[in-house]
Amino acid sequence: MREESAALQSALPAADELTVAERSKVVSLWHERAHRLGLSERWRPDFSALSRRALSDLAEQHRALYLHALPVMELLHQQILNTHSMVLLTDKRGLIMHALGDGDFLEKAEQVALKPGVLWSEDSKGTNAIGTALTEQRATLVHGSEHFLTVNRFLTCSCSPIRGPCGELIGALDVSGPQEGYHPHTMGLVRISTQMIENQLFIDEFAQALRIHFHPRTELLGTLLEGIAAFDEAGRMLAANANARALLGLAAEGLTGSSLESLFDTDLPSLLARRGAAGTLVRLTLRTGRAVLARIEPNALASCAARQPLRRTTQAAPERAATLVDLDTGDPAIAAVISKVRKVQGHAVPILILGETGTGKELLAHAIHNESERRGGPFIPVDCASLPESLIEAELFGYEEGAFTGARRRGNPGKILLADGGTLFLDEIGDMPLALQTRLLRVLQERAVLPLGAQRERPVDIVVICATHRDLKDMMRRGLFREDLYYRLNGLAVRLPALRERTDLETLVARIVRAQSASLPQFSPEVLAAFRRYHWPGNIRQLSNVLRTAGLMAGETGLVGLQQLPEDFLDELPGEDGSVPRGNGADLKSLRSSAVTAALERSGGNVSAAARSLGVSRNTIYRTMRPRRSA
Question: Which of 22, 49, 185, 457 could, after both became Cys, cross-link 448 (CB 3.0–4.6 A)?
């Protein structure tokens, strides 16, 4: 039955674009399918729903989908405001995870159990937009009497399935309202919103991969219409979004494993060499001969394919969140920090994390949250240093509609309210303006927050973890940080050591590399020795970037020598005797030349083979070996 319906629809336009006769036939097939399931049109609503705790666990299980969908749902609801409708997010079974909408319609929806925690699959409700869209695996409109259950026929619903980064079905987005409020543009808004969620999930999944964002028209880069393709460290395709598949002219099953060279007119070393500065656009030619402009995002490379067996064996369970155990890599100072934190867990003691920039303060805060009783609630990070003073108040405390010029319709709840029931992490608290320190202190004392433009406070249940690289005691002496706030936040202060002070460098290197790539490069003894004597001003964040670049430059060989390390790192690297860094780059030039010479000897003079072995372009080989002109 499903096959017959799918076959019919595949030969027709989308279900909301069919002629009356075509649509009547499709709906008849849907209803016949419900009868075959043993359902009756006169069944009353099933009000059995998940408990609040179970619903929270469901949101945590689908954390990535939930977090990326919420802001899109808010935006979508703003577009349909005052239409007496609601926006719903479900998992792939049709179980409603979250809903928001106009108050008057929410009451009507409650009468038919259209609310979080209730299953709206075809098996339980017959023909309905959520269940039918998930069954058909395509955007679906179900209007009025097209609903199978009589009690649902006052509804009009537009639903689109949501697919994960590797094309798997993970949920659905739906707009439901009274049938008299039907508007033909609603389905278009739902489809656009779904694509926004899918693109954000794709970018999040492949944040560690080489991503190419491309489109024939410059103005469409960075929009929902751009193609996005992700590749591993060998230039093999990991995945592509729907727009990329359309532009490349291939089906999803024909892309995975395809090489970069077979899809574009370049190989990986050449592409990286052409990339230039951040934000620079590169002109490429597709396999179809079509020219496109591309933006390259060469982050640390990770493999979707390596994750797929894990997904299958765990039946799509999410990756385990990092805990304090995961942070204990053998360094005594880190072990002491973990021991102190564990002693105050469960006692509502505020924690202040001190340490240089890049030492992993947010990672520690998240691990504390993940081992706490609030692990089922949200973890909301706020970087007080990255937000302009004019915006941090609105972002942190929220605002009502019309609170100020440019405020979003329906307002913004703010980070504090978003953290309700969970943990609020205030990074770089030392950069918070004095006036806002006073407001934050009031929130912590009253356990309530007053958004900008609001007339009443809203209760909030949060645990606050703060972090800073600044000397807060010195700031207090200079009148830059409130003393009462300091003692409110500093129940336990722990200091993370700088990377140069840690004894677990090689363990950290191995762990970071495993997180960045499915294929682990091999580091020469010279490289590890260089890592040990370097001063690491950017700490773990800098180490991650160096390892990412080294992995890219190693290419297919998987071997990382000094010649694969970034030039700025080598320029600042002290000599083995502790002498000052090279500075003028002369030793670096000699190092590069010797590496190229050795590679050419190994390849019998084959420049292409030498370039591949070093993970660089042929032009780099030529430039390195070109004799310098005399002055």
Answer: 457
